Amino acid sequence: MDENRIKMVIKEETENIDLIQTFLEKIIKWVKLPYYISWFLFAEMLFFGHYILLIITSTSDTYLILNLLLSIVFAWFIIEIIWTCKQFERFFPVLKNIIDLEEEEIREWYIKRLKVIFNFKRMMITGVVSLIIFGIVIFKFVNYGYWLESKIVLYYDYVFLGITIVAGGMSQYSFYSLSVFIFRLAKLPFKKIIYTYATTRLTSIGRLLLKIGAGGIALIMVATLMIYLGPFEEHTYLYFLLLIFLIGAIFWFFITQYKIHQILLQRKNSRIDAISICLEKAIEEAVSNPTSEKIQKVNELKGLFIEIHSMPVWPFDLKTLFSFLATVIIPIIIIILQLILRQE
Questions:
Q1: Which domain range does residue 106 map to?
Q2: Is 282 helix (H, G, I), strand (E, B) or coil?
Q3: CA–CA distance from 243 to each of 74, 92, 249, 250 (Å)?
Q4: Residue 269 placed within a domain
Q5: Cβ count within 10 A of residue 67
Q6: Tally of structural domains, the chain
Q7: Are residues 301 and 279 in contact, defined by beta-carbon separation less than 8 angstroms?
Q8: 232: pLDDT confidence band, cut at 50, 70 and 90?
């Protein structure tokens, strides 16, 4: 792959193409601030609303920290949805270089998939369903907010918690829709090209999914902290739900990464097969009639073969992943299980 081609690919893949815009970003567009600052400020306004009502009603909240953490969780849900959408917009040039279809066909397919993943109506439906399910657990079994003295503050907190649950459900719809996207991507025809740059860039999709998974795990850690600090009557139900979500997040991560792995492995094997045929032919010609040009060609093909053979077939470093599992995931599972057993 010559230098000009490399520069052209790099330029294409660093373009920021505005394919779609989520409703969550549109509704705060009038605020002349970055979306993450706007939503964070809105979340903190919800927190200060709770604080102001405490002053108005002349009551106190011993567990005020819970509302602060809740505002962070709410902002995190919304910001991560918008951030993920913006990150995925950047992968359109990558798909142009690896999918064997016309650019307009690829664009049409890609926009259609993004609109499904970030469909606001579907996200809202999932959010409402989540509110119904978690509302039963939190309000019936946990008796959330029983420590508050004012009914006004209590109802306000119900609304605050409710919209946070809805935001969480919305994010779950988008992130699990991403797994469908990866499965559909694997079914598209890929170009039979020798150069490795486009495929190497494909691993960035897998790394993005890794970041999303890490963000979900961080949220589970915050939720665990909230339950630990709070005076909830029934911790077991909540810890059990967190454990289910953690296992689901791990499963989601591995199933999406495995599909990326299959795509990379298939392309690597096809490249190795193609270059092996060329290398074998070049060696036969060099042996039968050795010349400096033919020997140089063999060396060049050998170098290309080694480069292709060293191409990664996973979007992440396995040692880093195992270290992450050993130092973060497994301890979280153990802590949650210990908290569940302690409650029993």
A1: 3-261
A2: helix
A3: 20, 35, 10, 11
A4: no
A5: 23
A6: 1
A7: yes
A8: low
Least confident of 161-165, 204-208, 235-239, 279-283: 235-239
Instruction: Please give the mean pLDDT across all residues of the chain.
Output: 77
The pLDDT of residue 324 is 55
**Half-sphere CA count of 144, side-chain side, radius 13 A:** 24
Longest CA span, the chain:
97
In the 8-state DSSP scheme, what is residue 113?
H
* C-alpha to C-alpha distance for 106 and 95, rounded to whole angstroms: 7
Q: Say if residue 88's pLDDT is above 50.
A: yes
Read off the pLDDT band of 331 (50, 70, 90): low
Structural tokens at position 279: 């290398």
d(CA 47, CA 42): 9
* CA pseudo-torsion sign 281, 284, 289, 292: positive
328 in a structural domain: no
**66 occurs within a structural domain:** yes
Any domain includes 281: no
Question: With the CA atoms of 315, 319, 324 and 329 taken in that order, what torsion angle do they form, in degrees rounded to the nearest 10?
Answer: 90
pLDDT in tens, 24-34: 888 888 888 89
Reported in sequence order, the residue ranges of 92-250 that DSSP labels E, i.e. its strands, are none
